[in-house]
Design goal:
22% strand; alpha+beta; 8-stranded antiparallel β-sheet; 234 residues
Length: 234
């Protein structure tokens, strides 16, 4: 059986009045307080990255566990650089890990370790991509996505829209209101008993939609088809 990886992407709305140095130092400080396997205790903490001639500054962390990686990219903070209201202008950090590992428990990663990193980063959205399933799913629904993109101001799977329910999602209160039309408490009410985990996190909601390390693409489509209507998504 093919072994997949999960890429958990976290998004933060970059601001001109908050420097890359301040963002990175706050995140690094939070990460050094977390336990293994994702905490940075005993690891070489990456220095504050510099944009140089580019519009982003990147960093990475070595964990010493096969397949486990953390990378990040901060958006340029220049005063004349105009930020749009979409994910292109987000600071991002992503954690990559295998669905099958002798040193990592898959369900613990989804239920326990990813939400504390999400909180350490302080972002507004998190998406746990299971292998290439999101690409395949959105290719099947290409016409629907194209129709959304033609609507003024819609940021598909971004700051004001939710189209795909990945295996793990975090949505802050603002994203819930903009994409769903209601708040995190209502998300919890609608999903309780229907998913492996749904809980409050920061001012938003953290959801594990599926925690099967052997999830098939058919299973991915099935829970999307079942739960999107529950949330009022089409």
């Amino acid at each position: 059986m093919k072994r997949n990886v999960v890429d958990f992407y976290m998004h933060y709305r970059a601001r001109h009045d908050e420097s890359i140095e301040d963002r990175h130092q706050a995140f690094a400080s939070n990460m050094q307080e977390l336990p293994a396997p994702l905490g940075w205790q005993g690891l070489e903490v990456p220095p504050v990255p510099d944009c140089g001639e580019y519009l982003g500054a990147s960093f990475d962390v070595e964990y010493g566990i096969s397949g486990l990686e953390l990378q990040g990219r901060y958006v340029y903070r220049g005063e004349t650089y105009v930020y749009g209201d979409d994910v292109t202008y987000d600071d991002k950090v992503w954690v990559t890990f295998p669905t099958h590992s002798r040193r990592l428990d898959y369900r613990s990663m989804l239920h326990e370790h990813l939400p504390v990193v999400m909180e350490a980063f302080g972002g507004y959205a998190g998406h746990g991509y299971f292998g290439s399933y999101v690409v395949k799913y959105e290719n099947i629904h290409a016409a629907e996505i194209e129709a959304l993109r033609k609507k003024p101001g819609i940021d598909v799977n971004g700051r004001n829209n939710i189209f795909t329910l990945n295996v793990v999602e975090y949505w802050d209160a603002e994203l819930c209101q903009r994409a769903l039309g209601y708040g995190p408490d209502e998300v919890i009410k609608r999903l309780t008993g229907k998913v492996p985990l749904v809980k409050s996190l920061m001012d938003g909601v953290y959801v594990v939609f599926n925690d099967n390390p052997d999830l098939t693409f058919e299973g991915f489509c099935a829970y999307n088809d079942r739960l999107k209507p529950v949330l009022g998504l089409v």
